[in-house]
Design brief:
about 300 residues, alpha/beta, 6-stranded parallel sheet, two-stranded parallel ribbon, about 40% helix
C-alpha cells in the first residue's frame, strides 16, 4: 500500500484515478479546490503536511474549451503555472519520492508535424487561443527537469490527448468538444451551431485509458523526458459531430459558424514512446467510449446532475 496524493482528485480525470487507486488498496488523499487552493503556497504546504504522500499525481488544472481559454487567458496562465510550481516545490521540501505531472496536448506548437512527437514540443508557439494554458504547462516540465538536475527530484511529465468520458464537464460555456456536442445534441433541438468549419482534427483518449497510462507511468517510468499518452487515431471535428449525432439520435441540422475559430488545425500524437517505456496502449475505440459517455450523461440528466 502506498500513500498517494491526487490533486484535482474531485475532478473529471482525478475522480476516475482515485477510484482505480482505491481499488488497488492504496491510501488515497483526493485533494479538492474547496480544501486546498493550490495557487497559494501556504495551501500547498498544508496539503503535503496533512497527506504525507509517497506518490503524487498532479492533475489539478484550470481547463476549458476555446471559448473559456479566450475569456480567461490570464487566469489560465497564472493558475496552472502557480499550481504546478507549488506542487514541485512542496514535493522537494517534503522529499516526496515521485510526482506524476499531467501536461496537455495544447502545449505543442500550432503547426507541429503530424503525428506529434515529444521532440517537437519546443519547435514553435502553441495555437493562440490556448497558448497561455499550454505555455504554463510547458513551464512545469522545465521546472520538473530543473528540480531533477539540481535536487534529484523524480517528477515525470505526461502529455495526454483530448480526454472524454463519463463525468466530463458538460458546462454550457467551458466544456470541451465531446461533452459540448453531447449536451447540444440532446433533447431533440432542431439545429445545433458549432464553431469553425469542422475541418480540424483531434485525438480523443477515453478517461479510463488515461488512468491506466498514468498508473503504468508511475510504476515503470522515471525519466526526465515528456511522454505522450494517446491512441494515435485522428478524427475530424466534423466526423466527431456526426458520430455523436448518430449515437445520441440527433436528427436536426448541424450548422458550422466559420466566423468562429477552429483552434489547432490538426492533432494526432505519436504514442510509441509510452508503449516502449512503460507498456501503455489505449484500448477503447472512439465509438465505444462515446456510447458509454452518452449513457452516463443521460443517467445523470435523469437525476438532475451533469
Amino acid at each position: 500500500m502506498t500513500r498517494v496524493l491526487v490533486t484535482g482528485g474531485g475532478g473529471f480525470l482525478g475522480s476516475h484515478l482515485v477510484e482505480r487507486l482505491e481499488r488497488d488498496d492504496h491510501e488515497v488523499t483526493a485533494a479538492r479546490r474547496a480544501e486546498y487552493d493550490l495557487t497559494s503556497m501556504e495551501a500547498a504546504a498544508r496539503m503535503f503536511a496533512e497527506s504525507e504522500p509517497e506518490l503524487v499525481y498532479h492533475l489539478a488544472a484550470e481547463v476549458g474549451g476555446i471559448g473559456a481559454n479566450r475569456a480567461s487567458p490570464g487566469r489560465y496562465w497564472y493558475a496552472n503555472l502557480m499550481m504546478g510550481a507549488h506542487v514541485l516545490e512542496q514535493a522537494r521540501l517534503h522529499e516526496t519520492p515521485k510526482v506524476v505531472l499531467a501536461g496537455t496536448v495544447c502545449a505543442y506548437p500550432k503547426y507541429t508535424p503530424v503525428p506529434f512527437r515529444e521532440d517537437d514540443l519546443w519547435n514553435g508557439y502553441p495555437e493562440e487561443t490556448n497558448a497561455p494554458y499550454g505555455v504554463a504547462k510547458k513551464a512545469i516540465l522545465v521546472g520538473a527537469q530543473a528540480y531533477r538536475e539540481q535536487y534529484g527530484s523524480n517528477a515525470i511529465f505526461l502529455l495526454p490527448a483530448n480526454l472524454y468520458g463519463p463525468r466530463d464537464n458538460f458546462h454550457e460555456t467551458n466544456a470541451h468538444v465531446i461533452p459540448d456536442l453531447i449536451r447540444k445534441m440532446s433533447g431533440s433541438p432542431r439545429e445545433v451551431v458549432l464553431w469553425g468549419d469542422g475541418s480540424p482534427t483531434r485525438e480523443f483518449l477515453y478517461v479510463e485509458d488515461c488512468v491506466e497510462g498514468l498508473r503504468l507511468a508511475a510504476e515503470r517510468y522515471d525519466g526526465p523526458e515528456p511522454v505522450n499518452l494517446g491512441t494515435g487515431v485522428e478524427t475530424s471535428i466534423r466526423e466527431t459531430a456526426e458520430l455523436v449525432a448518430e449515437i445520441v439520435g440527433f436528427e436536426g441540422a448541424i450548422v458550422w459558424d466559420a466566423s468562429m475559430p477552429n483552434g489547432q488545425p490538426r492533432r494526432r500524437l505519436d504514442a510509441s514512446r509510452a508503449e516502449q517505456l512503460f507498456g501503455f496502449r489505449a484500448l477503447t475505440p472512439l465509438r465505444e467510449g462515446l456510447e458509454r459517455t452518452v449513457a452516463w450523461y443521460r443517467e445523470a440528466a435523469l437525476h438532475g446532475a451533469r
